[in-house]
Amino acid sequence: MMTRLKKSEPAWELLEACPDAIELFDPGGIILYVNKTASQLYAKPADQLIGVNVWSLYPSSQAAHRKTIVNKAITSGLPVQFTDQIKEQWFSVLIYPLSATSGRIKRIITFTHDITQQIHAEERLKLTSLKLFTNQEDERRKIAQDLHDDLGQSMTALLLSLQSIRNEIASGQSDVGNQVIETIHIVEDMLRHIRQVLYELRPPAFSTMSLPKTLEELSSYLALSTGLRVIFSSQEQVLSIPSAQATALYRLVQEGMNNAVKHAKANCVWINFECTKEEVNISLEDDGQGFDPSERSTYGIGLQGLRERFLMLGGNFDVESALGKGTRLFGSLPLGSTSVNWNSPNT
Question: Which residues pair with 284 in a beta bridge?
Answer without folding.
Answer: 271, 329
